[in-house]
Amino acid sequence: MPISQWRVLGASVCGTSHQQNGQSCQDAHGWRLSRHGILVAAVADGAGSTPLGGLGARVAADAAIAAACSGFTNPSRLEEQEGTELLISALEAARRAVEEEAAKQNHPIGDLASTLILAVAGSDFVAAIQVGDGAAVVEDDHEQMIALTRPQRGEYANETNFLTSAEYLSCAQAVVWKGTPRSLALFSDGLQMLALDLQPCQPHIPFFLPLFQFMRAVTDESEGQQQLTSFLCSPRVTGRTDDDLTLLLAACG
6-252: which CATH architecture? Predict the structure, then answer.
């Protein structure tokens, strides 16, 4: 497998409703590039109804990335079973890390509830796992956009699944997509109404097309980061959603 070259930008911004209530952003994101050119990225959305949801999101994202990076030992290929096992192992590591942090904070684990999306991407595959809402979208080398994962709903309306639930493994979506990724996006549920056509659940092309074009044109990471943050804070976005917003974009090549 040839070494992939990824450019990555990500931003998390506080939703307008949280700003009005004096709350901080409960989302978290992160990424790491391995020496083999493999991209490992995560997005997590802390439950706003819990006191430490933002902390849980940060711990979950960091732990999942670290576990996936250490678990990916063969850069020459990624078979479906191997990829699924890697994803589940990273998810379990994230759950353990949140459990340990909850004990350290002397809180029940539910107080650190968050969703989690993890993606591992090379030059000829993208593997992704998700618990909760938000989604992962890939654009292939034929400019086709595919939703790798889809938002999940819990037992009740406006409820989702969380990494901290007892059933987190059975709720997890895991997929190993084989193809040539051109662009990748991970996003939290604050962007779902803009980013997805929910019936059926497909990427909303007018949303992603300019963003992926933007990523391929970025030459200055600092400037690109500012532009991505400005986009998330712009009226065209905040006029549609008042939730915290996280968007991680990557371009390969």
Answer: 4-Layer Sandwich (3.60)
